[in-house]
């Protein structure tokens, strides 16, 4: 074969090999990215295991750049990772996180979207992106295993304690089975009694006639209480007049001196009786205001209510008739207190027609 033909063939094969190599490098290397605009960013991590020059930088699973430099900051022992990325792919609110395959594999720097509500703007050249701490998957699994072991122990202890409690509750129920049955039976009977009471009350007060009667009685109660209070007020006026008369009698007895000792004793007894009457009237007024005693009968007995109205009317008429008598008695006692000599000493001591006095004086 001609030597020139052999040289030509060898040169052609060599040139073809170089062209194929360049094409492969361009397709599978950084050839396609050579014409894209690149930015340099810095990322700061507390640790960056398995990150080296050439480590891919991804966002949403798409490679947008590669790490160009990894260096240790001696001041605070942090790692500064420098990478070249495509322009317009990373924003100021994004954060960087290192991740690695669980079983072997190279590390990857993932760009994730941050949670800050500020407007998103593309990062500038030589900007710094905040890096998040790296979590080793093996260490996470180890810590999770320790926590699971503690949790399983807690669950076991809780299960044992729960079994003990259930056993004790079972023994308690078995020991008090008769009491529990009796309590349930009593509760059932009580429920039936309550239903019967409710049904009875409904039958008693559920009719329109009973409701109308209760309404009528309720409307009449204020008028009855007002009349009773007026009657008590008139009694108080009568008692006030009697008290004034007693004061006049006291003046009269003081003028008599030792000779009127028996009269003073009787007047004192009368005063005590009046005090007891006042106490009884006070108890009566409390009973009326509290709804006890006769007032409870007024709710169901119309005749008693009418009778009480007639009694109140009679008392009012009696008080009107007593007023002239009390007035005359007041005038009489005032006159005797001012001029006791009108009776005379003998008339005050001995019995005289129309006036009863003690016949003997100590």
Structure description:
The protein is α/β, with parallel strands linked by helices and 362 residues long. It folds into three domains: 36-135; 139-175; 208-349, no CATH class. It has helices spanning 3-28, 137-175, 177-205, 208-256, 261-290, 294-298, 302-338, 345-349, and strands at residues 38-45, 56-59, 62-73, 78-86, 95-100, 107-112, 127-131. A seven-stranded mixed β-barrel has the order 1-4-3-2-6-5-7. Strand 5 and strand 6 (107-112) form a beta hairpin. Helix 4 (208-256) packs antiparallel against helix 5 (261-290). It is elongated, with a radius of gyration of 58 Å. Residues 354-362 have low confidence and may be disordered.
Global morphology: elongated
State the helicity in percent bands. Answer: 55-70%
SS content category: alpha/beta
Strand order within the widest beta sheet: 1-4-3-2-6-5-7
Percent range for β-strand residues:
5-15%
Measured distance between first and last alpha carbons: 187 Å
**Can you tell me the residue ranges where pLDDT is under 50 for at least 5 consecutive residues?**
354-362
**Largest pleated sheet:** 7 strands, mixed, barrel
Count of helices?
8
Give the tally of β-strands: 7
Return the domain count: 3
Gyration radius over CA:
58 Å
The pLDDT mean sits at: 77
Please trace the helix and strand order, writing H or E for each element.
HEEEEEEEHHHHHHH
What key attributes describe this structure?
362 residues, alpha/beta, 8 helices, 14% strand, elongated, disordered C terminus
